[in-house]
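Thread amino acids onto this structure.
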């Protein structure tokens, strides 16, 4: 089964927009203690399953016709809780990603500023194989970071 990267990318953007960024409803956890967000559209299904809050780790998986075809792992944390709360970081991430998704993409090369905060996402690769880092700067200080990597899953 050949996955068309353009279709996959478009689905990922819609799924991410509808779940975390869109304040999607959390579903029944698939693992003890996990927070799970799901999105479905035709034969496409998306699951974002993560643990934690201000410091967190998770995995997103896209299924097509019941088979896992793409995944991404991530780990994020507040580096300077004296400069940035988890709640404010979450607001900034949602605002930033919402703007990026309007460009119909989910990978880096993106910057967004609001007040004294600047969100920066830098990545290498494309949906088939990538890695990257997102940060939130408070003035000149990096107060939050998330590292991620992922790509296509093949049998």
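Threaded sequence (155 positions):
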């Amino acid at each position: 089964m050949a996955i068309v990267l353009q279709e996959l990318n478009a689905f990922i953007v819609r799924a991410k927009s509808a779940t975390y960024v869109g304040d999607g409803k959390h579903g029944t956890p698939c693992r003890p203690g996990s927070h799970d967000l799901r999105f479905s559209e035709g034969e496409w299904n998306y699951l974002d399953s993560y643990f934690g809050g201000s410091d967190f780790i998770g995995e997103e998986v896209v299924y097509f016709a019941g088979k896992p075809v793409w995944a991404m792992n991530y780990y994020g944390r507040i580096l300077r809780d004296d400069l940035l709360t988890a709640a404010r970081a979450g607001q900034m991430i949602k605002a930033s990603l919402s703007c990026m998704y309007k460009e119909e993409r989910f990978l880096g090369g993106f910057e967004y500023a609001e007040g004294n905060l600047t969100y920066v996402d830098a990545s290498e690769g494309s949906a088939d194989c990538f890695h990257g880092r997102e940060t939130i700067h408070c003035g000149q200080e990096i107060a939050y970071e998330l590292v991620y990597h992922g790509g296509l899953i093949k049998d």
